[in-house]
Every structure is written in C-alpha cells, then in structure tokens.
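Case study 2.
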Amino acid sequence: MSAPVLQPDAVLAASARIAGLIQVTPVLRSRSTDALAGCSLHFKAEHLQRTGAFKFRGASNAVAALADAPRGVVTHSSGNHGAALALAAHLRRIPCHVVVPQGAVATKLAAIAAYGAVLHHCAATLAAREAMCEQVRAATGASVVHPYTHPDVIAGQGTAALELLQAAGPLDDLVVPVGGGGLAAGTALALQAHAPATRLVLAEPAGADDALRSLASGVRVEALTPDTVCDGLRGLLGAPNFDILSAYRSADGAAVEVVAVDDAATVAAQRLFAVRAKQFVEPSSAIALAAVLAEPARFAGRRVGIVLSGGNVDPDHLPWCA
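Prediction:
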C-alpha cells in the first residue's frame, strides 16, 4: 500500500474553491423511516445537487483547479460524473468529451449531451472505457478528469460530508455508497479532519463487492464483472481510493466497514424512501439506506448520516415496476 494521495485539508480547500458553484443541499429527516430503522437518520440530499448527484462537487473542484485548459476536459462515465463534468466545463467555457459505455441509462446520456459535451461510445467494460478515454485525450489534448481517482475529484466529493456534519452535528456513523470510491475516500478525509469519532460505513452491491474484498484482504481487487442494478456503482475501487480507505481509522481505532447489499434490498429501500420521504433517489443512492436497514442491531439507537448520492431516475424504468 502506497501513501495516501491526499491530505484531509484538501477537502476544506475544495469547499472554499467550489463555494458559489454548487448547491448547498438540505439535510432531510423522516420520522417514520427512523422508526423502521431503529435509529436517528440524517439524509444529505445530494440528489438535489446540480445535475442531480454529488458528482458535481468533484467535477467543479477539478475544473476550477485547472490552471489552463483551452483544449477542455475528457472523462469516462456511465452518467452522473459525465453530466457533472459537462456542466462544470460549460460554466468555464471549455470543451468537454465524455466516453460512455453501452447500456448506460438513456436519461443520463441525454443530460450529458444537454450540457454540451461530446459523447464517445464504447463497450461496457472498464478497459474499453479507459482505452477510449486515452484515444480522445491523445486526439484532442484535453485534460483527463477521472471520475473517481483524480485527487481534486476525491477532495470535492468529501465536501458533502463536511456540509452534513455542519448541519446535523455529531454523528455516530456516516454511511455512503461505494463504487469507484471517490465519495468514500473524500468522506474518509472529511471525517479524519472534522469528525474523527464518527465511524465510516460503505454500502456496496453484493454483485459488485470488490471494495469489501479489497479492504478485507488488504489487496485491491483489479478484476470483477459487476452484476447489479446500481449502474453508478459498477466501477472498481480505484488505487488511490483504496489507499485512503485502507489507512483510515476512527478515533476509537475502527477501520472502514463495508456492508454488501443484495439488489432486491436496495430496490426495496428505494421504493420505501419514495413512499415515506416523498423523494426519488437512484438505486446507487438507496443502497446506503438499505445497508442500515439490513443491520438493525449494528445501528440501533445511533445517530446515522446517509449521503443520498443521486436522483437521476428514469421514470419509465423504475426498478420495482420491472
């Protein structure tokens, strides 16, 4: 394991850099959901963020931090990061290219295009996405803004946890989804600096549990074929993200916990949140609530923060109606 790529103060710097660009999202409460979960839940509503996901935080920070980028930016994304980077680039008036895999959610692709990005299609594998991204970079000279390993992206994502802590006060646990690990690693940095007593819990699809395996073994899983309805969590945990999460410890010495969640439980949590809180979030977001509901003894009586990572739901393809 190499030294972590970032220090905790990078999140505070990101917060200052993106002030005025991002939406300071509310913290939502639901008494009926608290009663079901047996704990006090504080939901950071990043599904109400610009572009409909927390991803705009990291994209804004990365684009704002570029000293000079006349040739624009390029990334690969299944949707939310692509839309976020497209808007961030549009606001800075620079070109944006987004490599998108086959099978991506149509509404997310439409959002990327609507913000003015050029779409480049490829096969639905991480290798194909990264290869196409490199081809576009070589052809255009654009700066690569990786969706979850770029240092400025990681730091920007951590600002959601920073705002949640400021609004909700001390938390016993903070639960976030994990795919590539940008949000997870950024949250770890934020907790390390501003809430060392809070334990970090990651919610991961059982059909894409490379973070669980990686952190349990101490060796990052580098090959896994994801099988999950959570389209935003199909990326493998990045190397710098793994390093940050492996090094993290709360004040009482607790390491990062990972809860693997079946898709059926995630979809049930998504539907539950729509019914109880009147909020539509993506499966990739609802998985954090599903993780809490799956471990009632673990969270009983505790103050628990949950980052609702995104709300870009296709209304024509709700998973519980399939």
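The mean pLDDT is 93.
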